[in-house]
């Protein structure tokens, strides 16, 4: 028996095991190949994601004239935190996938939800994923600075973990968007509180019949394309809706703690905030308002929802 040869075999096997484990840490399903990327990440994509410190203190959440699930208005106290200036871009998500071999939920399913502008309809589209946001024939090449879409809550959470950050609670998100102003409906100063196309990427026109694209875009737009909020944050209204860490409950505001609330411990859907390029205010209320709460099943992905991350200060 050749003991030296057997030792070599054992050593090679151990190396292979370590390599396999290391490349599957962020994969959804073991054994799937690493995703090929049709887009190169930027040389320094972190430059798009500078963080803004939101000071600790007392903040207002909710709106007494809003839907039942944003009432009653509450005062909460939050510890200081840092939040990314922009939504996570295609370039940043590409860097994550390159580093980890991550396979998104939409890629595993082979389809995802889209809103199709030409047909004015929502539908499940085969082949829609973060690299092909509306299915075959679409691409993110040339859109590296647009927010990533077709990511589920689980995909966003995986990215945040890799980046050593977290998704914001919906309360952190609202505090960052509203600031200390009590009557804020949008992230911009109250003097400009009525919507206008130069302030955000929102649906301009009658939804879903026609988007006038008066803001320059039908679909997503580059981050930092519109003026920042008073806190120096971009696209808190429109462009893409943003996943938060919180489970949704219609009566959350009746039950939350006043000190660093995190919301319900379980649920069926996760809260999204900020509205998207599909958001309209034809009813007098818009998903893009700072206090508005939307919700999606955490496994869902679509071409109008993305995310940004936070970290403890």
TrEMBL record:
GO terms for molecular function: formylglycine-generating oxidase activity. This is Formylglycine-generating enzyme family protein. It comes from the Bacteria. SUPFAM superfamilies: C-type lectin-like. Residues 50-311 form the Sulfatase-modifying factor enzyme-like domain. The lineage of its organism: Bacteria, Pseudomonadati, Planctomycetota, Planctomycetia, Pirellulales. Residues 258-281 are annotated as: Disordered.
């Amino acid at each position: 028996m050749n003991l030296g040869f057997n030792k070599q075999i054992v050593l090679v096997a151990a190396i292979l095991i370590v390599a396999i484990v290391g490349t599957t840490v962020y994969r959804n399903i073991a054994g799937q190949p690493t995703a090929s990327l049709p887009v190169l990440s930027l040389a320094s994509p972190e430059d798009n994601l500078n963080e803004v410190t939101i000071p600790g203190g007392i903040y207002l959440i909710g709106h007494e004239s809003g839907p039942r699930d944003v009432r009653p208005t509450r005062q909460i106290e939050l510890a200081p935190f840092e939040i990314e200036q922009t939504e996570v871009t295609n370039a940043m998500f590409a860097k994550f996938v390159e580093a980890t071999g991550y396979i998104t939920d939409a890629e595993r399913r082979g389809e995802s939800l889209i809103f199709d502008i030409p047909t004015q309809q929502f539908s499940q589209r085969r082949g829609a994923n973060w690299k092909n946001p509306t299915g075959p024939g679409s691409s993110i090449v040339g859109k590296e600075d647009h927010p990533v879409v077709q990511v589920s809550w689980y995909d966003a959470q995986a990215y945040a973990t890799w980046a050593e950050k977290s998704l914001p609670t919906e309360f952190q998100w609202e505090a960052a968007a509203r600031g200390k102003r009590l009557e804020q409906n949008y992230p911009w100063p109250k003097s400009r509180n009525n919507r206008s196309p130069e302030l955000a990427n929102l649906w301009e026109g009658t939804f879903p019949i026609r988007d006038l694209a008066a803001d320059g875009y039908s679909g997503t737009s580059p981050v930092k394309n519109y003026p920042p909020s008073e806190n120096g944050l971009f696209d808190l209204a429109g462009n893409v809706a943003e996943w938060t860490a919180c489970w949704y409950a219609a009566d959350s505001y009746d039950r939350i703690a006043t000190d660093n609330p995190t919301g319900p411990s379980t649920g069926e859907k996760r809260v999204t905030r900020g509205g998207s390029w599909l958001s309209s205010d034809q009813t007098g209320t818009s998903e893009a308002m700072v206090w508005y709460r939307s919700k999606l099943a955490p496994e869902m992905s679509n071409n109008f929802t993305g995310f940004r991350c936070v970290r403890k200060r």
